[in-house]
Predict the structure.
Amino acid sequence: MKYLILSLSSLLILISSCNQKNVKEKEFNYPDTRKDTVVDDYFGTKVADPYRWLEDDNSEETKAWVKAENNFTFSYLNNIPFKDKIKSRLEEIWNYEKISAPSKKGDYYYFYKNNGLQNQYVMYRTKDLGKDAEVFLDPNTFSEDGTVSLGGVSFTKDGSLLAYQISEGGSDWRKVIILDAESKKQIEDTLKDIKFSGLAWKGNEGFYYSSYDKPKEGSQLSGLTQYHKLYFHKLGTAQKDDELIFGGENQKRRYIGAYLTEDQRFLVISAAESTSGNELYINDLSLENSKIIPVTEGFESDLFIVDNDGTRLLISTNYKAPNNRLVEVDASAPQAENWKDLIPETENVLSVNTGGGYIFASYMVDVKSQVIQYDYKGKKVREVELPSIGTSYGFGAKKEDTTLYYTFTSFTYPATIFKYDIKNGTSGLYWKPNIEFNPEDFETKQVFYKSKDGTKIPMFIVYKKGIKLNGKNPTYLYAYGGFNISLKPGFDLRKLVWLENGGIYAQPNIRGGGEYGEKWHKAGTRMHKQNVFDDFIAAAEYLFKEKYTSTDYLAIAGGSNGGLLIGATMTQRPDLAKVALPAVGVMDMLRYHKFTAGAGWASDYGTSEDSEEMFKYLLNYSPVHAIKDSVNYPATLITTADHDDRVVPAHSFKFAATLQAKAKSSNPLLIRIETNAGHGAGTPTSKQIEQVADKYAFVWYNMGINPFEK
C-alpha cells in the first residue's frame, strides 16, 4: 500500500497555520486508504462499505494502515509546542496518594493504594487499620509497561482463599488466578478465556464464573460472543471438567451472571439477552438436590436480590416502577404476583444496599445523592447527613458490621472516605487526599435547558471563579446518553489542567441515561435515539446563548456510546463545534451487532436487520454513513485501541478513513490508535496521562489558544 506522508517541514507549515482564526482552505495529505467494492443490500437499498477490509484487525494490511495513521497523527501532535507542558502539569497534579475504602475479609482489612504515578493500584492489607499495611497484590509487577491489570477480586466468606482476574492489554478476556490468602501463594492452575464474569465462591469448595466459547483463532478480538455459560469450578479439578450450571444450547442467553446471598443459602442467577432487562433464578443450596427455579422470566424489567432473611427475599426492581422499588417475597413462591412493596417507588431513582442489619436507600435527586437508612421492616430510621451536594457511594457492609465506609465526591470535592457508625448514624473523616487544589477557586452550577422537543434537561457547568461570560471561554462539553448509565458529579483530576487554565467543563444529563429512571432511558433508545443527539446539541446552544462560549471555542467529547454521540453530532451539525473528540465509538450502526458483544446492545439501538424502518433510522444517523462529501468538519481527533474487544477498533478505523476521504476540511481529521490497550479499563497511569495531554493539546491548539501564555 502506498502512503502519502507529509514531510516534516510541510507538516510544520500546516500545523502553524491551524491556530489561525480564519484559515484558508488547505489540504492534509492523509495516508492513502484502499477502497473496496463491497456493497450490502438492506431491504432493497444498496449501501457501499468500501473500508470493510479494515474490520480484519489481524491482517498485515490493516496493521500497516494503523502504523501509517499513527505516524501521521503523532507527527502532528508531537509538534504542538505546549503539549509537553500539559503533560508535565498532569504529572504534577496526578502525583498524590490515592486510596480506596477498606473492606474486611477474614482477619484482614484490604484496600487499594496508588502512591501517585504508579501505573496500577496496589492491593494492601492490615489487621489493624491505621497501622502499617503490607503489599498483598501488586499489579505493577504483572508486566513491565503496566498493560496487564487487575480485573476483579473475590474472597471466600472466611477470607482464606481468593480468586482474582487479570486483563492483558485491556482485553475483556480474562485469566483467573487462585491464591491462599495467608501465604499469598497460587494453589492451582490458572483459568483462562473468561469474559464478562464475576467470581462467586460457594464456601471453600469452588466458585461460579461465566464465559463464552472463544472465537476461532485470528478473530479473538472481533469475533462474535453469542451465548454465555455459567460454570462451577471445583478446586483441585481441571478447568475442562468444570460443571455447566446454566446457559449454553438449552438456555441461550447473551449475558449470564451469578452471586450468592451473604449467608450462602441462595445461588442467584441473572440472565439477559441485552443490556436492559433480565430474568432472575434462584437455587436454595441448603436443600439437597434443589432445583433452579425462576423468579421472573422474560426481559421486560431489571431486578436483583439485595439480601435475604431466611427465606424472605429483598428484591430491587423497576418492574411496574420505572424509578425502582424494593419488594419482599418468600423464596417458596418468589414470582412477581407475590411481591409486596417494602420501599415503594418515588419520583427519584432508587438504588439499594445493605449493611449492619439495615437498608441504605440511595436516591438520585436531580442527579445528586440523598441517602435514607431503613430497618428491615421498611421503617425510616434517618437521612444520612452528607458532607455537601454531590455523589456518595459505598453504603454496603456485612450484617454483623457496626461501621461502614463510604466515599463522597463532587466536581470540586476530591473523593474523600468517611467512616459511618451504622447504629448512631454519625460520620467521621477516615481519609482525605492531600492534593494541591483549592475548591474555593472554582464554581459549579446546575442549570436546566430545553431540548428541541421542549424536554427539560439538567446540565452541570464547572469553571474558575471570576470567568467572563464573553463567549470566548474554551469549553469541554461531555456526555454519554445511553444504556441507563447516569453521569453524576465526581472529581476528576484530569479536568484540573483544563479548569485552572480558564476552561469550562459542561456535563449535560441527556436522555438515554438513567438519571430519571427507565422512562428517561427509553426516551433515548431505538426509534427515539435522535432525542439524545438533540439534547446534546441543545446543551451547546444553551452555552452559546448564555455567553459561556461559542463555536470557535467549543470541544465536544464522549466515549463508547458517547463516541457515537460525538460522531452523530458532528455529522449532523458540523458547524456546532471547533473540535470533536469521539473516543472508542460505535460508528457503524449497520454492522455493530456482528462483532464481539455488540448484539447485546440491540435493546438500545435496534439493528439494521429488524425492519426496513429500523434500518433507515439507523442509516440516517450512523456516523460512518452520515459523512458527506466536501463538508468542512470540526478538527477531529478520533481515539481507539488495537485491543478493544468491546467496541472493536474497526468502527473508528472506518470513520477515520471515510472522513479523510470525503471531507473538504480546513481542519485536521486524525485518528490516534493506542497499541496494546483496550476499551479503557485498566489503562496504566502513564498511558492515561499521554492520552489526556494529546487531547487537551489538540483542543487548545485548534482553538488558537496557548494556555500557558497569560
